[in-house]
Design a protein that fits this description.
It is found in: Membrane. The protein is mainly α. It contains 13 helices and no strands.
Length: 252
């Protein structure tokens, strides 16, 4: 009886494993359910939705986390077919993967609320927020997305240095505008935390225009900060482009 069970484990593992290069019909089914759950999430936020249609959507919504839970348990059981994840120690290694953590977050909070607090599940908006982890589950199934993730990991130190530089620039810009604009616009630049909103909008080149300097010195400083913002946006893009080229170049 052990041999047929082992064979079944291998077949289920090949069907559901998200780290391989082959895209199986099992993956296709999971992707379809993920997309359906996100579409249902979007549709049910419409205030003018027919009450009968809303009830049907909520019923489908209740089934989806159960399906994800069953798929997760099947995958954990089938992981024993892989030598890396066989035995108690292997299962523990399997649960330490970030993909598995995202898998749990994609359905477990919603399933817990559904089972323990069904009366609030339909109106608990914060629970729906966990569905965004299903997008990460979706990314894990496609080799192309995994290549992107690996490229980001390869460039991790350089991106971290860029993020640190961005933090220094944001804070410095906020302090600079606080010094030169606080007296003229105390509501917008009367403190460093208030000036940080302008610094974020300017350095990211969004420029909402709701807060802006009005003094001559403030405008000069803002122009300098805006020019720095162009480089701040371009720098991580260049780092990622270089990482992609390094990773994909040898395959050409």
């Amino acid at each position: 009886m052990a041999a047929p069970q082992r064979s079944l484990q291998r077949r289920v593992w090949a069907l559901l494993y998200t780290g391989g290069k082959d895209f199986t019909w099992g993956h296709f089914a999971v992707v379809a359910v993920i997309i359906a759950s996100l579409v249902l999430l979007a549709v049910q936020t419409e205030p003018g939705l027919d009450p009968d249609m809303r009830r049907r959507i909520l019923l489908l919504d209740a089934v989806i986390p159960v399906l994800f839970g069953a798929e997760f348990l099947l995958r954990v059981w089938a992981a024993g077919a892989d030598r890396t994840f066989s035995g108690p120690g292997g299962r523990l290694a399997y649960f330490r993967q970030w993909v598995v953590v995202f898998d749990l977050l994609a359905f477990l909070p919603e399933l817990i609320v559904l089972l323990l607090f069904p009366e609030v599940w339909a109106t608990a908006r914060w629970v729906r927020l966990f569905r965004l982890f299903r997008l990460l589950k979706l990314f894990a199934m496609f080799p192309a997305f995994r290549e992107i993730g690996q490229a980001v990991r390869d460039a991790g130190r350089r991106l971290a240095a860029t993020a640190a530089m961005a933090g220094v620039m944001l804070f410095s810009s906020a302090v600079l505008l606080y010094v030169v604009e606080a007296d003229a616009q105390p509501d917008a630049f009367g403190s460093v935390p208030r000036a940080l909103w302008w610094a974020v909008a300017t350095l990211t080149t969004v420029g909402y225009g709701d807060v802006y300097p009005i003094t001559t010195l403030g405008r000069i400083a803002a122009g300098f900060v805006a020019i720095l913002g162009v480089g701040l946006v371009a720098l991580p893009a260049g780092i990622l482009a270089s990482a992609f080229a390094e990773r994909l170049g040898p395959r050409r």
